[in-house]
Design the sequence.
């Protein structure tokens, strides 16, 4: 049995405490008035145009001699106030977004680990049985993150944050100056009661399925084959529920931030980014636990197969990214291209950088078959993949919530630290509560003796096939 050491537990709790303190400070330091926002904008302008101060002074003197330009100054002042008001809302959104991104990332990763686990059950896969308890431990995070997500849904409905523009006052009222006819046509889906009810429904379904699958898996340790068939049926039901709920979740919680934009590929794209991340997390946690001697039945062939999945779905993610991007860019329809235009203008480095992190690096590192069996190389590639897909989610959410007021500062780091600490605590405390091997599974012997034969050895090992 695995022992969740005191050092690791303290480390996880320390990350959570530091993350909470930083997040609280981030919320308290956000501007509360329009005047504070204007001061921040003035400082930003000074930082960007510090060398032009004298020039601006000369311009003002020259303009004082032109009384006919007074009207234009009033227009500029009005534009400046409107820009300041918009930036003020973005600054207020930033602490919420900084917490929302890592929360959604951990929830998505935990959910996709559960989906991959269920898929292995349905496929009657033999190779992965020795990894079942690792996957079950990671999915325990669904409970914890769902609690935070539920609170977030409640606070959002109560208008404590304004991450979703369609929830603004007067958006659906034709008599209001804030009326948005495009969003109004989507009101059959975009309405607050429906959004909140669906969110609670997703969370409840994922938690119930995870609870039942874990409970049945532990009961199966006595070797009851009836439970094996029962778990198979439950896994089939979960996969159907997952495919529907994951797509709707991506529309509600991510695409709803940019309510004018739409993409028929988006549900698949979000699934791909979370799936690659989930497989990477399984690989890293497995390699760590094997290094501690608690997974002696996991061999290099299991690591190799996980790395193959990481490589394969990295290519799949790239295909979806390119398909979505290329078709929208080539069609050049304003209601679609605005999504990418904003990311090119304000998020160019993270937007293009994450493509390199998520495709070029994994392909170069994991294309070689031998490298897939080297644990430290898989971990190195995994860390890069996780960073890349975290940035991917960051770029999905931040442009629509904070626009040009983005950054990766104290708030963003604090939110990430908190959920990393929560992940460590949730995963390893759950792993310590059960036998590391799902010994009642009928395919456990096949999994323990699983070996991958590379091409040059197939001739001499052909009698093994």
Sequence:
């Amino acid at each position: 049995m695995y022992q969740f050491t005191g050092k690791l537990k303290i480390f996880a709790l320390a990350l959570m405490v530091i993350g909470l303190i930083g997040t609280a400070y981030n919320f308290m330091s956000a501007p509360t008035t329009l005047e504070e926002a204007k001061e921040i904008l003035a400082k930003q302008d000074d930082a960007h145009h510090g060398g032009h101060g004298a020039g601006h002074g000369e311009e003002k003197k020259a303009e004082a001699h032109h009384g006919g330009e007074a009207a234009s100054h009033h227009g500029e002042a009005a534009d400046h106030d409107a820009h300041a008001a918009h930036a003020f809302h973005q600054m207020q959104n930033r602490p919420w977004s900084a917490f929302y991104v890592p929360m959604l990332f951990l929830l998505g990763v935990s959910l996709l680990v559960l989906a991959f686990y269920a898929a292995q059950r349905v496929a009657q896969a033999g190779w992965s049985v020795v990894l079942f308890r690792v996957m079950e431990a990671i999915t325990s995070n669904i409970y914890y993150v769902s609690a935070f997500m539920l609170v977030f849904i409640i606070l959002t409905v109560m208008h404590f944050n304004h991450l979703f523009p369609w929830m603004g006052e007067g958006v659906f009222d034709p008599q209001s100056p804030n009326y948005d006819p495009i969003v109004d046509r989507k009101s059959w889906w975009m309405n607050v009661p429906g959004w909140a009810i669906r969110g609670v429904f997703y969370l409840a379904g994922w938690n119930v399925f995870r609870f039942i699958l874990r409970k049945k898996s532990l009961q199966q340790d006595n070797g009851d084959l009836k439970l094996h068939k029962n778990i198979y049926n439950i896994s089939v039901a979960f996969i159907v529920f997952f495919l529907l709920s994951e797509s709707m979740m991506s529309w509600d919680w991510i695409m709803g931030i940019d309510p004018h934009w739409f993409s028929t590929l988006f549900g698949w794209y979000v699934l791909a980014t979370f799936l690659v991340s989930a497989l990477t997390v399984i690989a890293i946690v497995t390699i760590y636990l094997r290094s501690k001697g608690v997974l002696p039945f996991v061999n290099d062939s299991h690591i190799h197969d996980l790395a193959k999945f990481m490589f394969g779905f990295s290519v799949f993610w790239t295909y979806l990214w390119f398909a979505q991007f290329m078709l929208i860019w080539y069609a050049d329809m304003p209601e679609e291209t605005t999504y990418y235009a904003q990311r090119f203008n304000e998020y160019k480095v993270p937007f293009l950088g994450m493509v390199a992190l998520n495709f070029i690096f994994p392909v170069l590192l994991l294309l070689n078959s031998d490298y897939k069996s080297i644990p430290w190389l898989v971990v190195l590639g995994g860390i890069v993949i996780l960073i890349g897909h975290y940035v991917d989610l960051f770029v999905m959410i931040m442009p629509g919530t904070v626009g040009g007021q983005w950054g990766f500062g104290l708030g963003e780091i604090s939110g990430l630290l908190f959920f990393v600490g929560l992940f460590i605590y949730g995963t390893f405390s759950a792993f310590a509560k059960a036998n590391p091997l799902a010994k009642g599974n009928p395919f456990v012997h096949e999994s323990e003796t699983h070996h991958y034969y590379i091409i040059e050895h197939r001739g001499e090992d052909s009698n093994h096939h």
Summary: The mean pLDDT is 87. The chain has 17 helices and no strands. The two ends are 34 Å apart (CA to CA). The first helix runs from residue 6 to 28.
